[in-house]
Amino acid sequence: KDVKVPIESIDQLSKKSFPLCMRLCHEHLRTNHHLKYDGRMQYGLFLKGIGVTLEDAIRFWREELTKKMDPEKFAKSYQYNIEHNYGKKGSLKDYAPYSCAKVIQENVVQGSVNGCPFKYYDQSTLKQKLAAAGLGTAHIQDVAGLAAKHHYQLACAKYFQVTHDTNVEVAINHPNHYYLQSQELMG
Ligand code: SF4
Description:
- The chain is 62% helix and 0% strand.
- It is mostly helical.
- Bound molecules: iron/sulfur cluster.
């Protein structure tokens, strides 16, 4: 429960142990130095859940977002939101990372990368993303086929098996649980 994950290891972890929803948030942030509010909530709480400290989280978001944003603006509103999510500001509530049920029913607006990719991408975009994540043609068909039938969590479980090269049956109902199962498998 108290495992701390240094922010320096996030790029590597995102490729190995993040579910696709969080991997895409991470890549979008790294590439565009921006994430809309809903994506920042979804991804920020996930990072908190895997053990990124508040200090590391602030450093990470500041480094990325201030590539495009005035540091004062970051300090005034964005940093506040991060502290708020860690229960250090405002209501002082320690906010819980989102479950799959919550991520799946998120409203995804144009240009945003929050939500569950197995739901919000059309088939051809999803297949491109899966190919970019290193899946071969047959596996892409399997995963995208499940998504097409609206079996998002089964598609995610299949993605887990393929990317971990395992036949172990996994049930995916929480992105943070996905991460823990991945870490367990990899020892
Ligand atoms: Fe993320 Fe859950 Fe969708 Fe997998 S099924 S991509 S963990 S929201």
